[in-house]
C-alpha cells in the first residue's frame, strides 16, 4: 500500500460513516481523488474488517447509483487496544529510531516510550527490552555513510545481493540516505554498474570512506522514491499472477503493468521481474493467496521449491 493511501482510508471510513448517502463525485473532490481512485479505495475498504473475514466481520460498502453507503464499520471508531505482541513491536521500532545517528529528539522519544510502556504493561516492556536491534550488517554503516554523503567522499562497499546470494565489491559516490518502506537506503553513483543505484544499508557488509572526493557524473540524479524503490524495465521478464482477496496487497505493494479484476475479489496482475528468485519467494509467501500463471517455467520452479521445502520439513520432524 502506498504511504499516503492508508491515512486516506483511515480518514475516508469515518467520513462516510458520518455522511451516509454521500455522492461519489463529492467525496472524490473532497479527498482530492479521481472517481476511479475513490472506487478503488472503496473496493479495498470492502475487504477490510475484523479477524475472521466472514461477511459479518467485513465492512459493508456500496456505491450503486453514485450514492455511497457504509455499514458494519463501527469497530474503526473504537479506541485502539494493543496486544502485548503489537506493543512490543512498536516499542522495538521506537528504540531503533532512537539509535539512528541523525535522530535529534531523543528526550521526546524517551517520554513517548515511557508512556507506551506504562499503557502496555510490564509484559510488553520486558519483551521489547530483550530484543536487540541491529541497524545494518556493518554496525557503523549508517553513521559512516551519512557522514561521507555530508562531506562528499567516495565509499568502498561490500554489498550482499540476495537475488544472486553473493557479496559484490562496489565503489559509490553517495548522494543521500533515504528511508523507504521501513528500510534505509544509500543512493549514489555506482562505478561497477555505471549508473545510479539504491543500496539497502542492512545489506552492506563492510563500508570504508576512501581518500577520494565524490565526483558523480552530471546525469546522476536522485530517484523519485514516493512509489517505492523497485523500478522495472522493459528488458525484465513479464510475470502474470492470479491473486485471491488475501493476496490483493501485491497489486498495491509492487508496480504492476496490468491489473485486471476477475470477480469475487480476485485479481490478475502482470509485473516485471529482474530476477525470478524474488518471485519464487513472493509466491511461497502468498501460499494459497496467489499462483503463477506465466511463464510456465516459473510456476514449475515455485512448485519444485515448495515440494523441496516440504520434504525438508517432514524429514526434520
Automatic annotation (TrEMBL):
Transmembrane segments: none annotated. Residues 4-118 form the PafC HTH domain. Residues 238-310 form the WCX domain. InterPro entries: CBASS_pafABC_assoc_protein (IPR051534), PafC-like (IPR028349), PafC_HTH (IPR043839), WCX_dom (IPR057727), WYL_dom (IPR026881). Residues 142-209 form the WYL domain. This is Protein pafC. PANTHER family: PROTEIN PAFC (PTHR34580:SF1), PTHR34580.
